[in-house]
Write a structure and sequence with these properties.
By secondary structure, the protein is an alpha/beta fold. It contains 13 helices and 16 strands. It folds into 2 domains: 103 residues, 2-Layer Sandwich (Enolase-like, domain 1), CATH 3.30.390.10; 259 residues, Enolase-like C-terminal domain (TIM Barrel), CATH 3.20.20. The structure holds 2-keto-3-deoxygluconate (KDG) and magnesium ion (MG).
Length: 403
């Protein structure tokens, strides 16, 4: 039995902050887990170092489900992004250890591959529709079969998803939250022409996606969904905040555009009605923010019963360790839909060497034992934590809005 002898939290900032858990065993095998929670990194680092690691020492690293239940039920205080990201990091690291000891890539332990690779979507964006389409054509040339389109909104100085750097979008951009101005009316006028022109330029053999980033009311989202129906979007993401899951009932009544939601979800309870009532088509929960491989598989099985497919969040704030875990998950779940792939910078990839690869619009986690992702601790130590916040939104009258 591999006993956990020590564990530590590594915080590094190769261009952006990442929190990584490393668990060591008496068999000389270690495992890694991503614990990054964008803009709240140190809260998870402390939760792990101060409250979780002391409970891990001496435990049998093979007892993944039992340790998951221990950390979830045993804390008394359940759910929430901090708790669930910490549990996720432990879970990922334990699966990594199990895979390494078995000498098998994680997807083999999860039942083996049900597909040759995971279809990923890339991010095309630009200040204008023309720029976005030019960027999308580039992704199409690279072989992407699915492309997310985000464009600047005329009359608004900035908006979610439109990057200063065309290929690497980093929203957590300042030491204190940047204040942005938002107008749903202006935004709603800007999206249908983007999709119309994108279909003209890119044709119909590519999936087109769009992220609303929680900014519309349900009835506005219903209207946008209807307006976009002629262009057959693959999905509309995070149409409205989902704390009240009934919001999606209203959207569903008005449009057949497929709906995706859940990158901020932490537990199966966050999507119980959404899935049970078939109010969504894709669930976006991720390995790192939704309790690890163990819990995400539970969500995926529940979703499968209700014709909901997976579409894991894969922005740059999810480290390459999480990306590797997501790809093993994607390869092994029957109801996989698509995987987001925002690409990390070279600096980040150097700190986290990994075995996953991209070819022809698909990704594969590789066949190295465990997750197939590592951390270069010496290099990581050169990048000190740098406080960085996500922006906030205000409406034109000054009141706070969803970012
Ligand atoms: O940390 C927040 C980002 O991951 C998020 O804004 C990115 O919405 C996002 C997406 O779909 O990638
Ligand atoms: Mg999103």
């Amino acid at each position: 039995m591999p006993r956990i002898t020590s564990a530590k939290v590594i915080v590094t900032c190769p261009g952006r902050n990442f929190v990584t858990l490393k668990i060591e065993t008496d068999e000389g095998v270690y495992g890694l887990g991503d614990a990054t929670l964008n803009g709240r990194e140190l809260a998870v680092a402390s939760y792990l170092a101060d409250h979780v690691i002391p409970c891990l020492i001496g435990r049998d690293a093979h007892r993944i489900e039992d340790i998951w239940q221990y950390l979830y039920k045993g804390a008394y205080w359940r759910r929430g992004p901090v708790t669930m990201s910490a549990i996720a990091a432990v879970d990922m690291a334990l699966w990594d250890i199990k895979g390494k000891i078995a000498g098998l890539p994680l997807y083999q332990l999860l039942g083996g591959a049900c597909r040759e690779g995971a279809m990923v979507y890339g991010h095309a964006n630009g200040k204008t529709i023309e720029e976005t389409i030019e960027n999308a054509l580039h992704y199409q040339q690279l072989g992407y079969k699915a492309i997310r389109l985000q464009s600047g909104v005329p009359g608004l100085a900035s908006t979610y998803g439109v990057s200063k750097d065309r290929y690497f979008y980093e929203p957590a951009d300042a030491d204190l939250p940047t204040e942005n101005l938002w107008s749903s009316e202006k935004y709603l006028r800007s999206v249908p022409p983007l999709f119309e022109k994108a279909r003209e330029a890119l044709g119909w053999d590519v999936h087109l996606l769009h992220d609303i980033h929680h900014r519309l009311t349900p009835i506005e989202a219903g209207r946008l969904g209807k307006d976009l129906e002629p262009y057959r979007p693959f999905w509309l993401e995070d149409a409205t905040p989902a704390e009240n899951q009934a919001n999606f009932r209203l959207i569903r009544q008005h449009t057949t555009s497929p709906l995706a939601v859940g990158e901020v979800f932490n537990a199966i309870w966050d999507c119980k009605e959404l899935i049970e009532e078939q109010l969504i088509d894709y669930i976006r929960a991720t390995v790192v923010h939704a309790g690890g491989i163990t819990h995400l598989r539970r969500i995926a099985s529940f979703a499968d019963m209700h014709n909901v497919r997976t579409g894991c969040h894969g922005a740059t704030d999810l480290s390459p360790v999480c990306m590797a875990a997501a790809l093993h998950f994607d390869l092994s779940v029957p109801n996989f839909g698509v995987q987001e792939y925002m690409r990390h910078t070279e600096e980040t990839d150097a700190v986290f060497p990994h075995h996953y690869s991209f070819a022809d619009g698909m990704m594969h986690p590789g066949d190295a034992p465990g997750l197939g992702a590592d951390i270069d601790e010496e290099l990581a130590a050169r990048y000190e934590y740098k406080r960085a916040y996500l922006p906030v939104n205000r409406l034109e009258d000054g009141s706070m809005w969803h970012w």
